[in-house]
Amino acid sequence: MLVKLLSGDSPRSPLLALILLAILIALAFAPFLFPGIRSVDTAARICIFIVLVASYDLLLGYTGIVSFAHTMFFGMGAYGVALASVHMGRGFDALAVGTLAGAALAAVFAFLIALFSLRVRAIFFAMITLAVASAVAVLVSQLSQITGGEDGLTFLIPRELTPAFRFGDELFGVRLNGKLLNYYLVFLASLALFLLLLRIVNSPFGRVLQAIRENDFRAESIGYRVVAYRTTATCISAAVAAFAGALYAVWIRYVGPDAVLSFDIMLDILLMVVIGGMGTMYGAVIGAVLLLIAQNYLQELMGLGAGAFEGVPILPELLSADRWLLWLGILFVLSVYFFPTGIVGRLRQGR
Amino acid sequence: MTHPILETRDLTVRFGGHVAVDAVSCTFRTGELCAIVGPNGAGKTTYFNLISGQIPASAGRVVLNGQDITRAGVSRRCDLGIGRAFQLTNLFPNLTVLENVRLVIQSKRRMGFALFSTAASHVELTNRAEEILDSVRMMPLSGYKVSELSHGNQRKLEVALLIALDPLVYMFDEPTAGMSVDEAPVVLDLIARLKAQTDRTILLVEHKMDVIRSLADRIVVLHNGALAADGAPAEVMASDVVQEAYMGKELDIA
Ligand SMILES: Nc1ncnc2c1ncn2[C@@H]1O[C@H](COP(=O)(O)OP(=O)(O)O)[C@@H](O)[C@H]1O
Ligand SMILES: [Mg+2]
User: I need a surface site. Which of A261, A282, A302, B252 has the fewest CB within 10 A?
Assistant: First the structure.
């Protein structure tokens, strides 16, 4: 049953299985295990980024396509929900329409980009995605009548998903309110999307993608239309990224260029997929958890460290919270150096 | 023999000013095994590339079963029945031996776009792949990654993929190149077994004269990209053009 849910793709390393199980339990019971607005917020972001990074892994790790437009697809889902909620009024119908419209738009964009660039050469795709993503980000900032420009849009989500909605008193000291429901919406949708992606990469289609990554020339000569497969993978990846974006918008109840379209998110996705391990799906889980926790708590930890070493030359300077990006960079270089196949790859070798 | 299956008409390709294949017209018939010979650089591999679609022709036509496929893409030609094994081993190196064969069978059965079932659940594909591996005596290697195989076994797998594809026209480009003396006969035996299935057409680029003598129904000689001779083995081997262009060179005439 469990193996079926995982589409037969077991973690293939006891330690990895243990870590994944721990993460699953932590996320499933996050509001109860780690009460507090900030930690639940981190947990929700982790869920969403797992999906986002896994959908990117479908492209990069399984198909061997480099794209810089993944944040754009994420943003389309987010803006879809925001715009639908603004124009249709708060409600679940607005969320559904916005999500589906965003995913459809993302798939159409992906299709057009793929059509124009993948026919030429796969590397061309990377450049086109970079250009299109930049253009869309500028456009969104400029069209302030529609998108709210740089300020973005704040919108109302259904009352049932907000803290104002109560459906009971307390359970294990946790308030039973709409925010809790919102978290579980995010968690369950993310879990479903992740399992869907896991199924796709383990399907006959997924095997073709891997064959294309390994040797596109040979894949074509045994009868696979490489362009059609790459295009389909791009569209699926974009649509799932848009779903993740929609969940994100519902969670933070706001969209803006910095929050959902910035190139920083693209860099985060790349870091997460590489550190976790490309072409493994589980790498997305490990990468997202590690990086988001580091981003959220490293700054504080370093602030503490800087305080502790006050008076010592240089050290407080190096540990100052502003330097956290530097440390993240060092961490990244080290991890790529020591685990070229990512953490998941390393754990599987070590079995 | 029976009816024509594959035909090239004045098939030509130029690379810059260099004519690599020069107006080659040839008709191949169902069930025949045709050896294609010629010194290195004669254009044999390029001729294959034109037939299987890896390179677009500068002029001329390729006709398969009466259908003009000159403009068709590689995967389309594969669907129509052209199967190609490569001179330089060309496999999926980080996938297992079994997965390599499975991919071919999956393609043949047009199942590549099955998105929501697991590959493992299609037991019939796996069974068929194992049958093929068994027939080429590679079953013990099925779980290995291709990159872990010896050169000889990679060449053998190259042939196995073509057998799995089971095309109308088999194209082997120096299938035994770089193989040891004990490995080569295994591959040649596989080709001989294919030849015994009388409805399959085989084009074989091969240097070893004894192999050609024992397997070929017909020999086509390419020289500087052009067709230099075409006919029954005994006749072609005796002809002046072959003595001069090919046999005269100190190629490995075993
Ligand atoms: N893609 C290419 N571009 C330029 N020249 C090529 C190309 N492919 C083959 N050639 C040239 O065409 C000629 C025939 O090569 P090839 O078909 O590989 O010969 P063979 O297989 O008979 O040894 C050679 O002179 C080779 O250098
Ligand atoms: Mg050659």
Answer: B252
Are the C-beta atoms of B170 and B200 separated by less than 8 Å?
yes
Contact across the interface for A222 and B111, Cβ inside 8 Å: no
Give the Cα separation of B23 and B10 in Å (integer): 4
Q: What is the DSSP letter of B10?
A: E
Per the structure block, which two tokens stand in for A170? 């307390």
Mind listing the pLDDT tens digit for each residue in A229-261?
A: 999 999 999 999 999 999 999 999 999 998 889
Give all domains of chain A, ordered by start, each with its CATH number. 2-350 (1.10.3470)
Query: By three-state DSSP, how is residue A153 classified?
Result: strand
The residue among A161, A185, A166 whose CA lies nearest residue A176 is A166
Given CATH 3.30.390.10, say whether it is the number of domain B1-81+170-175+198-254: no
Q: What's the pTM value of the predicted model, to 2 decimals?
A: 0.91
Query: Under a CB-based contact definition with an 8 Å cutoff, are residues A160 and A166 in contact?
Result: no
ipTM confidence:
0.90
The C-alpha atoms of residue B49 and residue A266 are separated, in whole angstroms, by 41
- Three-state secondary-structure class, residue A222: coil
Backbone angles phi, psi at B98, to 5 degrees: -60, -45
Distance CA A136, CA B177 (A): 53
- The answer to whether B107 contacts A224, with C-beta atoms less than 8 Å apart, is yes
Residue with tokens 């000159």: B70
Per-residue pLDDT of A123-152, as tens digits, reads: 788 899 999 999 999 999 898 888 888 888
Give the full edge-to-edge strand order of the sheet including B169-173.
B82-85, B169-173, B201-205, B33-37, B218-223, B226-231
Residue-range domain boundaries for chain B: 1-81+170-175+198-254, 86-166
The preferred substitution site among B46, B173, B220 for testing ligand 1, maximizing ligand atoms within 8 Å of CB, is: B46
Sign of the CA dihedral A303, A305, A310, A314?
Answer: negative
User: Which tokens go with B237?
Assistant: 């081997």
Q: Which amino acid is at B213?
A: R
- Cα of B49 to ligand 2 centre, how many Å? 10
